[in-house]
Every structure is written in C-alpha cells, then in structure tokens.
User: Fold this.
Amino acid sequence: MNIHIAQSFLKAVHDVLAIETQQKMRRGDISLSREAYSSSEVTVILNMIGDIKGMVFYAMTRQYAIGLASKILGEEMNKLDSLAQSGIAELGNVMTGKASVTLSQMGYDVDITAPTLILGENAMISTLDIPRLVMELHGESGGLVLHLALKEFRPPRPQEQEAVAVNGVSG
Amino acid sequence: MNITILNPFLAAAKEVVQAEVQLEVTRGDLALQRSAFTSQDLTVLISLAGDIEGVVLYGLTTQTALALVSRMLDQEFKEMDAMAQSGISELANVITGRSTVNLSEAGFTCDISPPTLVQGQSIEISTVEFQRVVVPLETEVGIITAHLALREAQASADNMPYIPIQVETASPNGA
Assistant:
C-alpha cells in the first residue's frame, strides 16, 4: 500500500478525533499484519471501492466509544444504545469520507460504503489475502486503532488538475 | 427494500451454488429485521456501492461451510484453515458478484467490495440504519442465511457519504 494512502487516513482520523474530543492525539505503534484481527469491543467497518479497494476498521473499547458518542451527540451517554451506535458509525463514515476526499484530490477515484458495526470481543475478522496496516492513535481519554487493508488497483490519475487549469484559462 | 433487488440475489445464489457445489437451493421464509444481527460461527461480509448501496452478510455454521468448501474444492476439509476460509469467502464473493450482473440487467449499476470474514459466535453485527431482509438459502448440507441490508442510493446531497468537492471556476465579468 502506498504510504500516501495511509497518511491520508491517519490525518483524517487525527483531525476528526482532535476536533471531536478536544484532545491532542498522538500516533502510537504502526505494524503490518497478515493474521486475522481479533476484535476489540467495538469495531466500525467500512469498505472502499474504486481505484483503491479494501476495508477500513476502527477498533476501540466500549468505554471510548461511549465517550466519543457523548461528545458527538452533545449529551452524556451511559451505554452503547442504538443512538450511540449510530453516532459511532457516523464518525467512522466522516473519517473515511474525509480520507477519501484527500485521496480524490490525489487523483484516485474512490467510493465508500455504508458502515457496519461489530460489537463483541475476540471475533476473528479476516481480510483474507489483503494485509492490514495497523496504526494506533492516542489521546488523554484513550484512543483507537486504525486498520487499513487496502489495495491500489489503479494509479492516481493526474487529469483532475489539468482540467481545472484548462477551465481557468478558457474562463 | 425493493423486490427488484431481492430477486436478482436469489437467482444469483441458486445459479452459483448449483454451479460451484452442485447443490439445489430452496428459499426459506423471508423476514425483515431492524435489530443487530447476532453472528453464527462464520459471517462473510460484502459491501455494495453505486445505484444500490449497503451490506450483504452471509451467515453459516462451520459444519455447513466445511461441507460447502469440500464440495467446491473437491477435497475433504476438517477445519476452517486458510484455504477453507478463502474458499467460503470466494463463494460469497461469486454469489454477490453474480447478483450485481443480474442487478445491472435490471438497470442498477453497482460495485462490490472484497469479502471480510468474521469468525466467532454471539458477536453483534449491526448495519446501523439499514433494515435487513433475511433470506435463508437452504441446501442439503445446511443453511446459508443471507442478510440483505441494501437500499437504492438517492442522488441527493443528504445522502452523499462526504461533502462533494466543488471546483471553483473563475467567471470574469462581461465574459
């Protein structure tokens, strides 16, 4: 996987979490894994389709998920009810969407799918033949682990910028 | 969810299971679920994007999966090793892929994601705001429970997964 793809995600997740939690987020360990992922308490799964294909997981503890949901919804939540679940799934959507905007500026044509939420520890989640890049992000109140199992199917296309330039000239 | 989405799936499942594992598929009773789905031994998850968006989940027991993979690869499988995992995910991938071909004949263009395999019982899998149509696909070696959490994509701004990038073009006065 291209390092710029990983950076787009890392930046998107960092920015969204820093804004939502009002905390400084630090990057933790980065590793590459070919094994199945043993699930955390809460995992948001989104798929990417287009020039880059694969899965993105956001893994976190239940407590951190509840904290995040409280921040997004602006009210104190005690449990991960359907409203909180929808908030967390939406957050995954926003982070992936933000990363995909950066990717499209880089010239990749990508689309993201609706989020799926997995609740429950120790399920084995396998991306089969796509290895996962695992990155941790921490703040004061905890953090999340970002898993990227993405494959580049087509190199970025540069014509996007050219088209803008031509418009600028002809206009 | 519209019946025009369901039928292409059923046709694809029948066709693919017949071709890959030489088994007849009969459809069990349909149900509509809103609540989170509690996983069976194995769940294959494949997403769709395009004119139809959402997720398709295929739930099955380890025993059924092993029987299907053994028939598919013509080799006896006793445990869910990497080969068997890959085989069962591929079966789900082919069914979903074939469905999109049928869907495109019905006028819907969509693309599918690679499969993700979830192993582990009693895990809650939630498709969030999507309702699921539960379709039991009954075969001689067990049931594949397909959950279709799909809807027709609306081309409204509210439904965009992200804010579209607007390219500003200069429009000089008097041009």
Summary: The mean pLDDT of chain B is 88. Residues 3-156 of chain B form a domain with the Chemotaxis protein chec fold (CATH 3.40.1550.10).
